[in-house]
Amino acid sequence: MRKILCIGSHPDDVELAMGGTVASLSARNYKVLLLDLSNGEPTPSGSVAIRMQEAAEAARILGVQRKTLTLPNRYIEDTVDNRMLLAAEIRAFAPDTIFAPYALDAHPDHIAASALIGAARFYAKLSKTRLPHDRHFTERLIYYFPVHLRIHLQPSFLQNISAYQEQKKQALLSYQSQFGERRILLEKLLKENEHWGFLSGVDAAEPFFQHEPVLFSAWPEGVP
Questions:
Q1: CA gyration radius for the chain?
Q2: CA angle, 184 as apex, 187 and 9 as ends, to 5°?
Q3: Which of 58, 61, 106, 158 could anchor a disulfide with 148, C-beta 3.0 to 4.6 Å?
Q4: pTM over 0.90
Q5: CATH of domain 3-147+154-213
């Protein structure tokens, strides 16, 4: 069974950017873990307890597992200690593919998380280290696109999520503390999937970027 690790700075980051892809991977019996670096609080309408309940429900709807680390929201940094913390999680799960936030974003946590994940991926393969678990190097690192920055980026590939767009929407609606009074914003964000779908000839799609070359012959049924 191929294992996929989707890392976000906060609960709902992964769902916003690639919730449809997560649902499609789960439906194809991939083992998927959503890993939040922080609990995402404080926010204007949330609390730690509420956010954790919402995050758990979103993961249930998508059919995947979830784990939330204890890095401080708004203060995520690419430090050696944080690299070691995340590298230990990568070793423990031993994923074939890691999804991470794109390095260009309006949110400083997302920018820092992108650098941190790339470094932790490298640290996880090191020998002669105090890290627990067997050393592991993740084959692919794929970046999902930002939702806080209104810029046009050229993706490496698009993933068809036409059959999973409604499931993605329902997972996001689990975050009532974030979107309960901002349904219009959520609908606008989901419209972006229709835009990418139009460009690729389907109803809805999600964009992704890779620094490393994409070998599509290795993915006969899509990503990854």
A1: 16
A2: 70
A3: 106
A4: yes
A5: 3.40.50.10320
